[in-house]
From TrEMBL:
The gene is LOC101881291. It comes from Melopsittacus undulatus (Budgerigar). The HXXXXD motif is essential for acyltransferase activity and may constitute the binding site for the phosphate moiety of the glycerol-3-phosphate. This is 1-acyl-sn-glycerol-3-phosphate acyltransferase. Residues 317-329 have a biased composition (Polar residues). Belongs to the 1-acyl-sn-glycerol-3-phosphate acyltransferase family. The lineage of its organism: Eukaryota, Metazoa, Chordata, Craniata, Vertebrata. SMART domains: PlsC (SM00563). The chain crosses the membrane at residues 28-47, 59-79.
Amino acid sequence: MLLGIPCAIHPDPGLSSSASSCWGNMMDVVLLHGLLLLLPLAALLLYRYNATFHYFCKVAFFNCWIIAMATLLSPFAALRGRSVENMKLLRAAILPLKHFYGIKMQVWGLEHLNTEELYVIVSNHQAALDLMGMVEIIPDRCVPIAKKEILYMGTVGWASWLSGIIFVDRYKREDAINVISQTARTMQREKFRVWIFPEGTRNQDKSMLPFKRGAFHLAVQAQVPIFPVVFSPYWDFFSSKEKKFTSGTCTIQILPKVETQGLSSTDVPRLTDTVRQAMADAFAEMSVSCCEDQSAEHPQHPHCAGVGAGAGRGTGSPQCEENTTGTSN
Ligand SMILES: CCCCCCCCCCCCCC(=O)SCCNC(=O)CCNC(=O)[C@H](O)C(C)(C)COP(=O)(O)OP(=O)(O)OC[C@H]1O[C@@H](n2cnc3c(N)ncnc32)[C@H](O)[C@@H]1OP(=O)(O)O
Ligand SMILES: CCCCCCCC/C=C\CCCCCCCC(=O)OC[C@@H](O)COP(=O)(O)O
């Protein structure tokens, strides 16, 4: 008997039709088992030797991880209700991802964020992988502003809402502006910080997109400083266009704060340009060193070696932390 199929092992040429169909069944089962064994093997080989398959597997794992963690954490977050404190859960859930992907995180200038005051963080936005960088440095009581579509992503939406993430409808300017103005009032009252991607969408080009003004209006309305944060380009390890996803190093540079005290809405365009320029300069500088690092046998970033000081970087020596094992704050 094979898997419950009563059948002779060796077919006899003179067997009846029911016996030969039994033999056929057995062959089907053997073939099925063979296929079941071959499929994972083929997948393994594809994963190892086909960059595109490798890319899709890694992206799928990323999404599955986020969905699984959101599903797991939502009930715990719900116990507390909608609260910025729930961001700690999301942060803890995303922190281990860098280990799975072999992504090293280097953080410079973390000391800038070690202040009791409220502020707005603005950063460039290359891919969903930014979440891995965000959780390295996101301070306590800080919520991102996200596109409304995330709210409808099932448990990911619930987890985000429960963590106090603020949603804007990018296609309804008036509504988005209202949400930001309201955020300016509540961030003072409820004492939280805000993280905004002023490019407004993901961008993997060699330069940053023009900045939207919401983040800067927010900082001016709330009269809080802005901390520009720059993620180094992912080119050497991630590209959605080229379907590339390998291990690599991501450097996160926190630039000194930009004050907004006394500024009004008429100053917003200039403030936006100043911050964007500082970030673009830092990004350009990091792009060069990112390529140098790639070719170096023992990569050491110029800033870690104490060389170079680009635009927007200010007082104090840049803090250089290499972080692959734990959190940086
Ligand atoms: C484990 C579980 C994990 C869960 C996963 C969690 C996921 C977490 C996800 C986190 C990551 C998620 C990442 C993401 O989802 S990124 C995508 C969503 N984020 C954003 O879009 C943020 C950036 N966008 C903006 O700031 C835009 O400005 C908005 C959306 C507000 C409007 O866009 P729009 O394109 O329409 O505007 P514009 O900037 O060209 O400006 C147009 C005009 O409006 C004026 N104006 C603008 N704002 C204000 C204001 N507040 N008060 C007064 N005026 C204001 C402005 O001065 C200008 O006028 P003028 O100056 O030309 O005269
Ligand atoms: C019941 C519905 C179930 C739907 C399930 C949806 C599954 C969603 C899968 C994985 C969730 C991963 C979400 C991570 C969000 C990362 C944030 C991000 O990078 O958003 C992109 C946004 O900044 C800019 O968007 P665009 O570049 O303008 O586009």
